[in-house]
Each structure stands twice: as structure tokens, then as C-alpha cells.
Amino acid sequence: MTDRHDTGMAVRRAVLGDAHVDRAEAARGPLDDPFQTLITEAAWGTVWASDAITRRERSMLTLALLAATGNFDEIPMHIRATARTGATPRDVMEAFQHVAIYAGVPRANHAIKLAKATFAEMGAAEMEAEA
């Protein structure tokens, strides 16, 4: 593996958490191995590893771009990542307001629905962990 891959795995684990990455790696197979290498090195080892902006800002950008392009399946994963990146629920709602103005209200509305459900699940999980 390359240094970029090692860096990517470290950043991916820091942002998404070990449990998520472990599940993804366990599901990895010969068919998707080149794709997994690509996203680990390019997305996580290059883009997310850059210190040009904070992980909080990167979370907000990522969520806004996912919503604006209608890639809703990854929004819950990136909402869960905000617990590690420092993006607050208010930050996320601000990003989705930009989506509403620049990409459309229906996309922002759906993203907000997903975010609310995911934040609620996260809160329930935190309450269970404290019990």
C-alpha cells in the first residue's frame, strides 16, 4: 500500500469511525477493490487529508454537495461523521439552506429530513450509552 492509502485509511477512520470502516473493509471484494483503493487514496488520502480547510468545513461542504447533487444515500453516514468533525446540527442546517437557494428546495428538504432522523438516532444512541 502507498503512503496516500495509509493516510487515507487513518483519515477515513478518524472521520467515519472504526466500526464503519471495519464493516466496509469486511465487505470489500475483488470486484470493488480498485474502487475502494481509489476512494481511500483520492477522497480520504488527498481531499479529506488536506489541511487547507477544517474537517468541520469539509463536512459542511460534503453534505451540501451530496444534497445538491441528489446523492442522498451517503447523507446519513456524513451526518454521523459530524460527531467527529465538529460540524454542529446548526452548521448542517446552514449548509442545507444554501442548497435550498442554489440547488433547490426539494433537495434541501429531503436532506434535512435525513439529517433530522440521523441526528435523532445519534441522540438515542448516546442516551443508551449513558444508561
Q: Could you characterize what this model shows?
A:
Helices cover 79% and strands 0% of the residues. The chain is an all-alpha fold and 131 residues long. Helix 1 packs across helix 3, helix 5 crosses helix 7 and helix 6 packs antiparallel against helix 7. It is built from seven helices and no strands. The mean pLDDT is 94. This is 4-carboxymuconolactone decarboxylase.
Quickly name the level 1 CATH class of the largest domain: Mainly Alpha
The structural class is mainly alpha
**What string gives the helices and strands in order?**
HHHHHHH
Number of separate structural domains: 2
CATH topology of the largest domain: the name is AhpD-like
What value does the Rg take, in angstroms?
15 Å
The biggest sheet, with number of strands, parallel, antiparallel or mixed sense and barrel status, is: none
The total beta strand count reads 0
Rough outline: globular
Helicity level, as a percent range?
Answer: over 70%
